[in-house]
Specification:
The protein is mainly α. The longest helix has 30 residues. The chain is elongated. The termini are far apart.
């Protein structure tokens, strides 16, 4: 008996949108947002400003959420750019070394 070829998974096609990569980019953005929030917390604690704890919590949440949104949007746009049928929308992998300025 011969085995049938292994079926392709949905992630094998490079033109498909991969939500798992976007999720990982969001997690990385969340990590960066938490680090920024810790830095911001240290900075605010060492200033004479007197801010309520709830307001600081919302500030840290906004910073973290902004980093999550940034990471996921960058990855989404990268994937959409690679899967575009028009050549103008695809990312240009060449460097500017061979191009002249006019």
């Amino acid at each position: 008996m011969s085995r049938s070829p292994r079926p392709h998974s949905r992630n094998d096609d490079p033109s498909r949108f991969n939500g798992f990569k976007v999720l990982w980019a969001a997690f990385i953005g969340a990590g960066i947002g938490v680090v920024l929030s810790i830095f911001l917390n240290t900075f605010i604690r060492n200033t004479p400003a007197d801010l309520p704890t709830a307001r600081l919590f919302y500030l840290y949440a906004v910073v973290t959420f902004s980093a999550v949104l940034f990471g996921s949007s960058i990855e989404s746009m990268r994937q959409l750019q690679e899967s575009a049928p028009e050549e103008e929308y695809r990312s240009n992998k060449t460097t500017l070394q061979g191009k002249r300025r006019r």
